[in-house]
Amino acid sequence: MPRVNYRSSDVALMARMMRAEAEGDGQLGMLFVGNVIVNRAKADCLDFKDVRTISEVIFQVQGGNYSFEAVQKGNLFYNRARSTEKRLAEKNLKYWRQHPAKYALWYFNPYAPCPPTWWGQPFSGQFKNHCYYEPEAGTCDSVYM
């Protein structure tokens, strides 16, 4: 059983986002970004109570801006999904999770050392250019299921 319900259009959309956000971090980096996307769809807490589909996660607006920088700036996100990224996205949707993004709901590239918290949420680890953050204990149990 997949981690979240999805259609082929979700696989392509997620693949585009993974590539746009983490192509420079390689396939493993793209998988970590995919973890965050699926975790947000699974989370029933914090800023993610009303997002359940991959499309809702990717096009979520917070504070007047899209949550993912790639949607705002265009870059690679608006290119067609490639088969390699589609395979990675489907792997995330079906089963794949790994530290430091296993339970992460946020990531960013600080262009500096990773801060110990991000908007009050604890640092879970870093992979190449991205810092990952998971919810503070007890604030989002659904992401740990």
UniProtKB/TrEMBL annotation:
Residue ranges annotated as transmembrane are: none
Question: What top-level branch of life does the organism fall under?
Answer: Bacteria
**Which residues fall in a coiled-coil region?**
none
Q: Which GO terms describe its molecular function?
A: hydrolase activity
Indicate the segments forming the Cell wall hydrolase SleB domain, all copies.
24-133
Q: Does the keyword Oxidoreductase apply?
A: no
The keyword Amino-acid biosynthesis appears for this protein? no
What protein am I looking at? Cell wall hydrolase
